[in-house]
Predict the 3D structure of the following.
Amino acid sequence: MLNPIEASQQIKDEFIGYITTSFQIADEEYSNQFKKELQREGLVAKGPYLDVSDSFVKGRSLSELMKMGVVSKLFTELEGDIPDGSKELQLNRTLYLHQESAIKKANDNRVILSLQQVQVLVRRNVSLFL
């Protein structure tokens, strides 16, 4: 199961590693100060912030979508002989409405992009026809 504290720390550590290897400082003293400053609490990342309230509208579960014919019944075979309680993919877990909507759009062969993906394309000056 995902531990948000550990995941947040790992992302922070990997980002700091990326920054320190991307900006090589020849002077060893300055390089050490740079690395030490990046490790200072709250400089690179704050949080993680957890929202315990359910701020998204609930949709249907994958099981319900299978019964409706929206998604393939092959979802039941994805994790093979693993007992239901141990499977990562919980078919009875309720999806959020935006997830259900994305699945339906994908079924209609409509392109699905996240806001971050759109922002990257715009920065790269890619024409979008929305």
Remarks:
- Helices lie at 4-22, 28-38, 62-67, 97-107, 115-123.
- The radius of gyration is 21 Å.
- The beta strands are 58-61, 94-96.
- The chain has a mean pLDDT of 81.
